[in-house]
C-alpha cells in the first residue's frame, strides 16, 4: 500500500460534459496543475463551473473526464479497487458539499463510525473539536435533527477523523457564521499541519480563511 501521496497531478483534465463547449479561460481545465502535500490551495469557480466534479475525480467516484489525473506519477485510471479504498481511508480526506451524514444516527456516531473505520482521531481529540465548534451538547442528537450549520460542523469533524495526505473541502463553511468559520479554519490548519498534509478548498472566494493559499480559477 501507499506510504504517502506527495503529489496530485492534473494534466489536460476536462469533464467530458464540457468537451464540446466553448470554455472560458481556466487555470485548471486543459492545463497541467500539481497539488503538493503540505501545500494550501483554493480552487475558485462560480456555480456550475465544475468544483464538485473535480473533487469527485480526485476521489475516484467519477471518471467521466478527458486527460489524466495522477498520484505520484501513477494514472488514477489504473488503480485497483483495493488501492482506491486505501487512498480514501488513509490518504485523502473529503468533505463533500452535500455532507452525506447518516440522518438517523447521532452526531457522535456519525463521527465515531468514520474514526473507527479509518483508525484516525481518538475520542479525546474528537471531544475537543466538538467543544471548540459548540457541539458538545448536540453530540447525541440524530444528525437529521441538527441545523444545517451544525451538520456542516459535524461533517467537518468526521472528515478529519482519518489519516490523510490531502484534505478536499467542497464549500466547507457555506452555512457557518464568522466565529465558527474561524474556528473551523484553525482546526483544519492544525490537523493538516500535524499530518503534514495539503489542503484543497473548492469554493467561491476563500471563506475558510486559509492563510495565503495558491489560487486557481476553474
Name the features.
22% strand; 5-stranded parallel β-sheet; alpha/beta; 218 residues; 9 strands
Task: Explain what this protein looks like in three dimensions.
This protein has 218 residues and is an alpha/beta fold. The chain is built from six helices and nine strands. Helix 3 (107-118) packs parallel to helix 5 (148-160). The two termini are 32 Å apart. The mean pLDDT is 92.
Nutshell version of this structure?
This protein is α/β, with parallel strands linked by helices and 218 residues long. The chain has helices at residues 51-59, 81-90, 107-118, 123-132, 148-160, 178-195, and strands at residues 7-15, 32-36, 40-44, 65-71, 74-75, 92-95, 166-170, 198-203, 214-217. The strands form 2 sheets. Strands 6-7-8-3-9 form a 5-stranded parallel beta sheet, sandwiched between helices. A 4-stranded antiparallel beta sheet has the order 2-1-4-5, with helices on one face.
Helix/sheet category: alpha/beta
Order of helices and strands: EEEHEEHEHHHEHEE
Strand content: 15-25%
Between the first and last Cα atoms, what is the distance in angstroms?
32 Å
Count of discrete alpha- or pi-helical segments spanning 4 or more residues? 6
Major pleated sheet: 5 strands, parallel
Q: What's the β-strand tally?
A: 9
Overall, the morphology is: globular
How many whole angstroms does the radius of gyration measure? Answer: 17 Å
Mean pLDDT: 92
Strand order of the largest sheet: 6-7-8-3-9
Which stretches of 5+ consecutive residues score pLDDT under 50? none
Considering DSSP H and I runs of 4 or more, what fraction of the residues is helical?
25-40%
